[in-house]
Amino acid sequence: AVETADIVLVRNNPADAVDIIALAKATYRKMVQNLAWATGYNAFAIPLAAGVLFSYGIILSPAMGAVLMSLSTVIVAINARILKVEK
Known about the structure:
Largest sheet: none
Order of helices and strands: HH
Number of domains: 1
Number of strands: 0
Number of helices: 2
Helix content: over 70%
Distance between the termini: 27 Å
Low-confidence stretches: none
Shape: rod-shaped
Mean pLDDT: 89
């Protein structure tokens, strides 16, 4: 059963199940945060990269677009990593 289980309780403490449920809820909240961040970021960045603000003299170079997209990924990864610290 250990090979196919997603979670294995190694101690005989039923309170561990409560901790697992709390971790699952925190993980879901973090997933929603990351999805909201990525959606909001892309809703802003994609039109900017497409040149929506070109008439105002604001131009996003492809290199800067790549840097900003990488930064978005780093922010999502750091936010997910914070979940481990918050335990």
